[in-house]
Amino acid sequence: MRIGLIGTGRIGSFHAAVLSRHREVGSLVVADTDAARAAEVADRTGATAAPSVDEVFAWGVDALVIASATSSHAELISRAARAGLPAFCEKPIALDLAGTLAAVREVESAGTLLQLGFMRRFDAGYAAARELVASGALGRLHTVRAITSDPAPPPAAYLPLSGGLYRDCLVHDFDIMRWVTGREVVEVYATGSDAGPAMFREAGDVDTAAAVLTLDDGTLATATATRCNGAGYDVRMELAGTADQYAVGLDDRTPITSTEPKGPPRCENPWPGFLERFAPAYEAEIDAFLGVVRGERANPCDAREALHALRIAEACERSRAEHRAVALAEIAEA
Question: Would you list the domain boundaries of the chain?
Fold first, then answer.
């Protein structure tokens, strides 16, 4: 297959390396608004650098991988749909609900393939948790706790473009919570703190957030996130039921230290960031996409799945702003 890749930043460069060595990829065309960066990635991976995004479409690729700036996602998704191209796109589809719905409708109208990059669905720990819940091994699931903590804030210029902590960061927790439990969120209550660096207040964002979510079977879930976790990158999920309890993301690189005399030793090599922690999952999702393009498997995360996760994030943002519980029924889904 001839694959087009748009965006050669950190995650785009990673995808380029994966695609360049994949057995089903015969050639790779890359493009970026930063032509020098695209040329460097092309040189490193054996790809061809296109002068612009227009050439990626004009040169006749079989599928498209979108890893560009978030603000360009919806337009590129729609363009791929109009061209009849199957596409993989890093989350989110768009930063707002209206833009997301418009792109989803265009994809569905064209009848084309769109897979969204919620990589945690391809992580071995989360996949095992999903199987445990489905098997009944936990008994009746009553509590879910999700944690996402970044070791340091992103650049100040990124914040106004990110969509905020709920849409940019916690949306991963919302998606994986639905996927692991097989349940829908029906109500949220969320709050946040901007007590950290001033750039969060200036962007109208928060550096730390917490949400209580009620699932459609009565299971209670919490989701917390922060941009300021000095110990390291920490992503976990705990699932507690009437029969057992399990944790995802608890290993010898989890940046947490026990205060108990007989507790586990201090982690000496914590995860530094998302790409290191989820590298195998990122590679697996690209492999899955190519399998979907070849017709060998079903789409593991389509546009509607991404929309559901965004609706939860939107409900949390509204809850934080209005200091009240928000039902998911209040957030448009069509």
Answer: 2-120+283-301, 123-273+308-330
